[in-house]
């Protein structure tokens, strides 16, 4: 993974301070340790799921689903996977029934994931699915030790797996929450963690990625009032769900009251996919208000030689320059052209991330890079990166509405 | 369709001025007339496509695909459609091959849609597909009269359909561009236009929707420096691609240099889907920087009685309040709870749009409502709503890169 910045931050002191804070934070926040975990027990558990199971269905929402979805959808198009993976995330009945129509109930294993063990969406859907499949051997529950969900699972004699300590939902993709569904589908979770570990080591050893992460975090924090919107512009369809994962990670971590002030702060994440969004969002970046930074993500080698054939279309000879060009080269030329065009503009902070190819290791690196960046920016804008008090109010209102019924 | 605003604009004079400008603009901008068109020729053309065709594939990008996709994905989950519809929008080779694997080449009709007739993505993909299927009867081309693409299509004796005058890509869903693929799949395009027409009439007759549209547009324009981000929070999975269509419409229309100043202006669109994004983006809206307005879109009647069963789970008795509740009621209660929670906050401008049910007519109304709103805001922030000069620079750079090869 390469990262090139086309801007520079001013405060070296802020960089040092943020780094020190992260080194300290590492002792109490759980996600930093995930790349180094022993995955033996997870693999052993996964091998206990019978081969007759053809589909894995996650019942979970937000941090319980977005990470696994990002990795699965990244790898799926390039690797023959052993099982299909679906996500029940919505209480939209149309969606629930559409997903269920794809699941043979005797060949589907359900992973019910809820940290608190009382998420309304998750349990509404679980109750419905339970009414269709009452055999507990078709379920695994992933929750915090001691939660009511753990007690329930033990009572019905279903499998229970646990979240590690102090790992919040949106930072949990490299824990059981993400690793179990992914391993069950044949994703190489060892490689995934190796990729994450590489970034972790380089960062904490002040190696290659350290400078970029620090400089970028300080720049975003220093300029957060002007560049309040941070776009990822990824040039591959395979990164669509990675963008969704990023949106939760960034938005929910950084959109907060400051710890030491009454200010509302926050940076707004936007996930874009090129080339489609060249024909949608690019105009706004190019000519709209100067409130956006953009990170381009490119895949260097698609391992795909699909090529535009050497065909001349009468009256369309001007398109012959496309002939014999591999699509993988075209998409990267499109990306480079947009980058060049934006660099010609003033006041649009850009950087590029290049990942070598579509592999577990590379998405693992990208995930850990973004987790570190989020932690650094959170520190620098003085928020608690790891809580989400703002979502409680709506839950309390819903609860009282439900009780009134 | 109902629309309720929880904020009010100050300038009644601005409202009158914007309305007058739209009445004037209607004479030259083509999309306003689309609801009143005669769809006879389109239906006749569609009936000429043989019944052996099971799949329709659009080769097009941005305005050539997003509108049809929005309507198709809205209706698909609730209606038995006659054909499948796929969209080739990306030059990502992984994506192209994945889509092609779903298309039986002898049962697929391709709609090649390019207004200019020289879109790089569209023709790269077309050339590739043409190398697999060279029979022109499997293709229909939709373009501007006189374009090189028209000449090509006529030369190979394939069908050609035309875009109406002065209809830009992102405003073209109710023209041949959207109507042909939709009608070919069994979507009722007459109802779609009726829904649009209803909004059009009410607006120009200063009926029900007139006040909301004007007030909202003026509020967004008056406060564009503070509320520079406009979120749609739609409580149904079926509106996911409508949100993508909205992002192009809003971003590409409003992100501009002002006509009469050197200012960069623009409002940033974000599409969210509830309840999932309650577990992702909501925290940022609730507690982050006060730079966002939010429009909630609800579906009143899902015509679905899928109900949470009356099951008590040991140790999880607190979730019994969910029992016997239809999911359709739960999702709307979730929406209402989030609205209430946000109304308790200061400085978050909200409005709600309620559509009665998932029908062609209702999505037609919603589309035309957003087109009118875009035109009004564009007028009020002094931009040319209908051009996109900012995307040209990247295209020129790409062209010269291609020539250098």
* Count of discrete alpha- or pi-helical segments spanning 4 or more residues of chain A: 14
Biggest interface pair, counts:
A-B, 117 and 116 residues
What is the average per-residue confidence, as pLDDT of chain A, rounded to a whole number?
A: 96
Largest beta sheet of chain A: what is the strand line-up?
1-12-11-7-10
CATH class of the largest domain in chain A reads Alpha Beta
Distance between the termini of chain A: 53 Å
- CATH overall fold name of the largest domain in chain A: Rossmann fold
Fraction of helical residues of chain A: 40-55%
Can you identify the CATH superfamily of the largest domain in chain A?
Glucose-6-phosphate isomerase like protein, domain 1
Q: What's the gyration radius of chain A in Å? A: 22 Å
Outline of chain A, from the CA principal axes?
A: globular
Unreliable stretches covering 5 or more consecutive residues of chain A: none
Active site (chains A, B): 252 (proton donor), 279, 395
GO molecular function (chains A, B): glucose-6-phosphate isomerase activity
Keywords (chains A, B): Cytoplasm, Gluconeogenesis, Glycolysis, Isomerase
Function (chains A, B): Catalyzes the reversible isomerization of glucose-6-phosphate to fructose-6-phosphate.
């Amino acid at each position: 993974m390469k990262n090139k910045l086309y801007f520079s931050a001013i405060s070296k002191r802020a960089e040092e301070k943020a780094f020190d804070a992260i080194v300290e934070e590492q002792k109490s926040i759980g996600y930093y340790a995930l790349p180094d975990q022993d995955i033996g027990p997870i693999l052993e558990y996964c091998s206990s799921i019978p081969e007759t199971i053809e589909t894995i269905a996650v019942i979970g929402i937000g941090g319980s689903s977005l990470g696994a979805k990002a990795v699965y959808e990244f790898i799926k198009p390039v690797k023959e996977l052993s099982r299909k993976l679906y996500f029940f995330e919505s209480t939209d009945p149309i969606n629930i029934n559409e997903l269920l129509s794809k699941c043979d109930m005797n060949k589907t294993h359900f992973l019910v994931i809820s940290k608190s063990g009382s998420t309304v969406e998750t349990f509404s859907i679980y109750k419905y699915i339970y009414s269709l499949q009452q055999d507990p051997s078709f379920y695994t529950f992933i929750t915090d030790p001691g939660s009511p969900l753990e007690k329930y699972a033990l009572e019905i004699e279903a499998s229970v797996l646990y979240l590690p300590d102090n790992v919040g939902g949106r930072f949990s993709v490299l824990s059981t929450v993400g690793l179990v569904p992914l391993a069950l589908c044949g994703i190489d979770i060892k490689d995934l963690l190796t990729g994450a570990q590489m970034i972790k080591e380089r960062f904490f050893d002040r190696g290659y990625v350290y400078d970029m992460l620090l400089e970028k975090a300080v720049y975003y924090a220093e300029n957060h009032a002007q560049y309040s919107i941070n776009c990822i512009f990824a040039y591959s369809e395979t990164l669509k769900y990675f963008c969704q994962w990023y949106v939760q990670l960034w938005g929910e971590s950084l959109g907060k009251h400051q710890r030491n002030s009454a200010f509302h702060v926050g940076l707004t994440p936007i996930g874009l996919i090129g080339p489609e969004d060249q024909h949608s969002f690019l105009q706004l970046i190019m000519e709209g208000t100067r409130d956006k930074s953009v990170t381009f993500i490119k895949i260097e080698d698609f391992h795909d030689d699909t090529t535009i054939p050497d065909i001349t279309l009468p009256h369309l000879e001007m398109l012959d320059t496309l002939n014999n060009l591999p699509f993988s080269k075209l998409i990267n030329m499109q990306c480079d052209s947009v980058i060049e065009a934006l660099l010609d503009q003033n006041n649009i902070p850009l950087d590029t991330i290049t990942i070598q190819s579509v592999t577990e290791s590379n998405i693992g690196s990208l995930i850990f890079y973004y987790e570190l960046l989020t932690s650094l920016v959170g520190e620098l804008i003085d928020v608690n990166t790891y809580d989400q008090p703002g979502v409680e109010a709506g839950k309390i209102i819903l609860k009282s509405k439900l009780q009134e019924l």
